[in-house]
Amino acid sequence: MTQAxxxxxxxxxxxxxxxxxxxxxxIERVKGMLGRTxxxxxxxxxxxxxxxxxxxxxxxxxxxxxRFQQGGREHARQAVAAARAAAPAWSATPWKERVRILxxxxxxxxxxxxxxxxxxxxxxxxxxxxxxxxxVETADLxxxxxxxxxxxxxxxxxxxxxxxxxxxxxxLRPYGVFAVISPFNFPFALAGGPAGAAMVAGNTVVFKxxxxxxxxxxxxxxxxxEAGLPRGxxxxxxxxxxxxxxxxxxxxxxxxxxxxxxxxxxxxxxKDNGARAIPRxxxxxxxxKNPAIITSKADLDKxxxxxxxxAFGAQGQKCxxxxxxYVSKEVRQKFVDLLVEKTKKIRMGNPLEKDVxxxxxxxxxxxxxxxxxxxxxxxxxxxxxxxxxxxxxEPFNHGYFVEPTIIDGLPKQHALFKEELFVPIxxxxxxxxxxxxxxxxxxxxxxxxxxxxxxDDKEIEHFFNxxxxxxxxxxxxxxxxxxxxxxxxxxxxxxxxxxxGRGTGGPWYVQQFMREQSRVHIK
Length: 523
Ligand code: NAD
Hints:
Blueprint lengths: L16 H15 L4 E2 L2 E3 L2 E3 L4 E5 L7 E6 L3 H20 L2 H17 L1 H12 L3 H24 L4 E3 L7 E9 L2 E5 L7 H12 L3 E5 L5 H13 L7 E3 L4 H10 L5 E5 L2 H12 L7 E4 L4 E5 L5 H13 L9 E7 L3 H13 L19 H16 L3 E4 L18 E4 L16 E7 L2 H9 L3 E2 L1 E5 L3 H10 L4 E4 L19 E2 L18 E9 L1
Parallel strand pairs: 1-5, 8-9, 8-11, 9-10, 11-12, 13-14, 13-19, 14-17, 16-17, 19-20
Antiparallel strand pairs: 2-3, 4-5, 6-7, 7-22, 15-16, 18-21
Bound molecules: nicotinamide-adenine-dinucleotide.
The site of nicotinamide-adenine-dinucleotide has 30 residues, from helix 8.
């Protein structure tokens, strides 16, 4: 195996050639593994059901990724029971031992990182570096939460006392069983990261992935098994969100939920929590409608690079994708010309190939959203400056390929400036002042990420102070609004983008999986 030493994150602009050598070999290996049937894993045992569903590649739907179990409410209940049975021993395991096991999981993931990333390309259609980033981030997230435990001495803090014989402590203790419900777009990091945090904190887990990314779900489970997580600590079920997923929400054996996905499902989960007999933590990350502001003082080369990378990276299917641009009238034409030129040069195609930057959207639903949005834009007087079409030439007509699309000329209150589309479409609006741009940027229910391009520090400071977003960037060429990394940029949304105000990969995250117990011990 060649030693590829370059550190890959979402901000990596170009890869070391060794990385492609590794990828070429991994893709060959993975090709031979496609089309298998996979079980669910409950208490470490393989579980199958009467019905299965097919998971097909968005690159070419003739490719069967795998066949997965159509789990229902009953299987979710079994998984909850297994997680409950395993919870007392796992929570009583010394935290240093939990850290050791979870760090072994990080090593296991890193050991298999190329095969995992190659599988993800087939299953999700993201490019090589995006998929490798997703896998590497998973290990980095889990490691960060383990390190936080070490930095905080297992979250046991001696307190003051009112007398010499009194010993007082604050200790954070696990809740019990966490449900981990993850989205398709970062199928490893947004499953392994939250599950890792839940487990290092002493909780056991029932994990349900999005059905489009069941393969990455079962692979995470296999990594947990290889790393030596005790039986029942990490349980894996597949099946529809509305039955298997809904059971996890309804089941009173679940002590906490960590959900990443759409606002619709997330808000329902929050409403449900308000109606329960016993409240429980619900850690919820939802969608975004992320703006980039380009002021008259921007470096337009940097701005156009940052915007196209954030708008179209992973085919616009990032919660942090730059889907709105507010550009100063003074520099508008020059900026738009650069953005259109760079967008038209994007290399689209089969993401298994090393030079391809954009692949397909994940499923037919994404295709339909794209086609509907373009039709609405045209009907309402929008101008398509780039893209606008599904790609129907061979072999792309067998997958879900759509062009990176820039829409101009819509009124700034148009629905396409408000709705999260989750496809490669970005809309442009003109502004005169920075405050006008910030007001427009804030005029949405979402508040996930936002970016500014300006060479004036005062403008940047003003933006940081006024913008309503949990993750903010100034002058970031590698991504105007995207590309956070554990331990470097905590990632979490404000407003309807997130319910907790504490970002993943940041210093306040892992504590959410525990509750404080105040201990008074008189000797
Ligand atoms: P989704 O809401 O459709 O599905 C997310 C998960 O919820 C899936 O596992 C799904 O099966 C499950 N689910 C669906 N209905 C359910 C129900 N009734 N009960 C329980 N579970 C249910 O989202 P998606 O299409 O997979 O992902 C895209 C969305 O995720 C976008 O809105 C995106 O912005 C958001 N997202 C947010 C972040 C963030 O950090 N804020 C990160 C990635 C994605």
